[in-house]
Amino acid sequence: MHTAHKIMKVFVTRRIPQEGMKILSQSGVCKVSLWDSDEPVPREELLKGVAGAHGLLCLLSDKIDTEVLHAAGPNLKVISTLSVGFDHMAMDEIKKRGVRVGYTPDVLTDATAELTVALLLATARRLPEGVLEVKNGGWSTWKPLWLCGYGLLGSTVGVIGLGRIGMAIARRLKPFGVKRLLYSGRTAKSYASDVEGEYVPLDTLLSECDFVVVSCALTPETQGLCNKAFFSKMKNNAVFINTSRGAVVNQEDLYQALTTGQIACAGLDVTTPEPLPTDHPLLTLKNCVVLPHIGSATYSTRGIMAELSANNLLAGLQGTDMPSELKF
Amino acid sequence: MWYGRVALRRLQRIAVAPLSVGSSLTRAAQREMSSLPRVYITRQIPPEGLRILRESGQVQFDIWDSDDVPVPRKELLKKVKGVDGLVCVLTEKIDAELLDAAGPNLKVLSTMSVGFDHLSLEELKKRRIRVGYTPDVLTDAVAELTVALLLTTSRRLVEATHEAKTGGWGTWRTLWLCGYELANSTVGILGLGRIGVAIAERLKPFKVKKFIYTDVAPRPELARMIDAEYVSMDELARQSDFLAVCCALTPETKEICNKDLFSKMKNTSIFINTSRGGVVHQEDLYEALSSGQIAGAGLDVTVPEPLPTSHPLFTLKNCVILPHIASASYTTRNAMSALAANNLLLGLKGEPMIKELKL
């Protein structure tokens, strides 16, 4: 005997790639209310839009806090985020209400690791400086020592947080002739042997590495991890890369480290805030490369993320297994 | 002060070991020193090479003491008169005029580069001048920069840094600044040599699906190292999601990357050239990029170098141009300098060089 199939209400906080929208609209399970824009939904609209929703599909720029959860009300069964990070969601409050959460790990690992290596190479080999010199007439002829950078050959690389993305980064760096790969974190990882990774205390990593890559999640423990003390332990030829979350880095301390020659250069794909104001001091430095959070920005990956978040959402609505459920 | 400096430079030219100013040389020492082979160095090469030459005690050398500016032609023609050895970089044309100016003593030419398109090989062979160059020591740096340029182009880093600086960065958006991923792609190499192999080795862990290459003939030993399939030029164009040009510049490869090639490529493909500018027909490349025939291009080499800032390629968002910095890492430039110095010294002694160019 079939019970009447109730159409559930879903609010989607942004225009998402077609691959995802199609799955939702063709499911026959939900009625989609969409903030049909490339720009973030204003707070007012978000609170209005979630009222009575059974499911919410959101982005990392949406703060899903008590106020939003309260505005949604008791229907809310599932929140599906188009991201692997979940620091924008009040997990305790969500757990209290018995709401399930879907997210998009793994599918963006390759794109993010690729971007991290792109950023590391562009920073260490001074590509943005080179491009600018060429455009501004700074390029006269071939010169033996002009625009020389730091190569990976024979270097020691350190990854802070050897998770999925950290491991993918390590794999991509190895064939550049990296001599030693160190990593630090809460625990040693058995899979580190695949890249001959050595588990060391953070201080050891900082004092021995020519390249330091931050790839950990943002938690109360990692907030502000990269501060004055951190940079003071690093080598003055070291390259610092952060593609995790902006809040892991104390930006004033980073600025000091870069301008005093405490470290050689830095590449950031994440900042505090995002966007970084155009008058921020870090944007004035030749030895600092700032990208506008494009870690997972490839056509194929964003399409796959959209599909996954849509499927996570539908599973949550129907009480079935999600392809990627966040356990918390 | 000035007089003291001039005197010191004269001493520097004829002596190899550091002499304290004011001490005089014995007649025998003077005679011995003046018979040391004479060498001209066309640029202030990185410290390692100069140190090796100075400490060898085997040569007396004069140098165009600038890192920045190439030696002017007239000065060069004057300075090479009667030299036994010449150390140059790629900005000097070593042709019949120069070799005639140098005269019959010239036995060894040592270039601090792996490319030799600035050398008239026929003229050098005719005069039985031995040639040293610097392959291998720069392979890693060049492969690294090529991958850096490929990723910078495919992931739109130049556009992205610009947006971050000029206020184009709003909040996170789902399709903004999306690029093309290496995962599941086909990478094509035009000219499979040491550098081509090194590039492919670095790209492999990005989950490239397939490597293909074209060359004048198959290169099975090199191809085996990277599991690459030999294809025709046409197939290389048709199948590649990323096409890297790694061949030498010869009469055969001049402007081989032209309308014909670009028209066969995918409109999502990325074209990278770190070999020599002359391999690319730049007007055809401009057409291909501006019409969307290919998605993007990254160049470390152009014609001419430097490329005038008014060149149309600079108006394209999807074209990244670097000022020929592929081997520009401190360790590599010093290694090249050291190798060039050692090639020279060995050549002058009539011994096998570390890296000699077969003419």
Question: What this model shows, in words?
Answer:
The complex is a heterodimer of chains A (328) and B (359). Chain A is elongated and about 70 Å long. With 328 residues, chain A is of the alpha/beta class. The longest helix of chain A is centred in the C-terminal third of the chain and has 20 residues, at 299-318. In chain A, 32% of the residues lie in helices and 15% in strands. Chain B has two domains: 26-136 and 330-357, Rossmann fold, CATH 3.40.50; 139-166 and 178-321, 3-Layer(aba) Sandwich (Rossmann fold). In chain B, the strands form two sheets. In chain B, strands 8-7-6-9-10-11-12 form a seven-stranded parallel beta sheet, sandwiched between helices. A five-stranded parallel beta sheet of chain B has the order 2-1-3-4-5. In chain B, helix 10 (220-226) links the parallel strand 7 (210-214) and strand 8 (228-230). In chain B, helix 4 (73-79) runs parallel beside helix 5 and helix 9 (194-203) runs parallel beside helix 10 (220-226). By secondary structure, chain B is an alpha/beta fold. Chains A and B meet through helix 5, helix 6 and helix 11 of A and helix 7, helix 8 and helix 14 of B. Chain A: Keywords: Oxidoreductase. Chain A: GO terms for molecular function: glyoxylate reductase (NADPH) activity; hydroxypyruvate reductase (NADH) activity; NAD binding. Chain A: Residues 10-325 form the D-isomer specific 2-hydroxyacid dehydrogenase catalytic domain. Chain A: Residues 117-295 form the D-isomer specific 2-hydroxyacid dehydrogenase NAD-binding domain.
